[in-house]
Design goal:
The chain is α+β, with helices and mostly antiparallel strands and 207 residues long. Helix content is 24%, strand content 21%.
């Protein structure tokens, strides 16, 4: 999707009067890697109760609120009844109705990418449609590849037009690229390019 198809939707975030119930936790950059290390401290039985997706510099874990792990800098995400296709920050609310924000985002990415995790500030979107039970070997391989990329200095986000699908954290689940097309940038006071989520064939081989 090119920049010509992008829309303007000024969105500002402020404290939410009543926090949403956490359904997911997300980390970006160093926080994503820290979150992966924290997840890997758990046994395989616990890993099997969580679902997740991971892409370049981002990790999203879904599960029961009381079981979700925490690391400094991570963000809990929940769902508003008026915008069921979105996972929004539990402690923040926009000055735009959630239903209008949902409509604007779905106009750009379609319904097949949902649910969509929404990061405030940048309005980056991460499709969790392909989330599957977490597999230790796959998550370990993802973390190793992220640490290699960090060492090379390759962690800068790519342009929005290169966005593809996040990869599942389950060893034997193929990622459907069509479900993760999310090349969207909302020009506003807090907008930035979408995070590039792509399936790396080399990583899949390492899994």
């Amino acid at each position: 999707m090119s920049g010509e198809g992008q829309v303007a939707l000024p969105v500002r975030w402020g404290p939410r009067a009543e926090a949403l119930e956490p359904l997911a936790v997300i980390g970006v950059g160093d926080v994503a890697r820290g979150l992966a290390r924290r997840i890997l401290q758990e046994d395989d039985a616990r890993l099997g109760t969580w679902r997740g997706v991971a892409g370049e510099g981002v990790l999203v874990l879904l599960g029961p609120a009381e079981s979700l792990p925490w690391v400094n800098g991570a963000m809990y995400l929940g769902r508003e009844v008026t915008a069921p296709s979105l996972l929004l920050p539990c402690a923040l609310v926009t000055d735009v109705l959630a239903s209008l924000l949902e409509r604007a985002l779905l106009t750009q990415v379609g319904n097949t990418a949902t649910p969509l995790a929404v990061l405030p500030g940048s309005l980056q979107l991460v499709s969790v449609a392909s989330a599957r039970p977490v597999h230790r070997a796959t998550l370990t391989a993802w973390l190793a590849s992220e640490e290699v990329a960090q060492g090379r200095g390759d962690m800068s986000p790519r342009p929005p037009s290169t966005c593809a699908a996040p990869r599942s954290l389950q060893l034997d689940e193929a990622t459907d690229a069509g479900r993760g097309v999310m090349s969207l940038r909302l020009p506003s006071t807090c907008a930035s390019p979408l995070l590039d989520e792509e399936t790396d064939a080399g990583r899949e081989g390492a899994s």
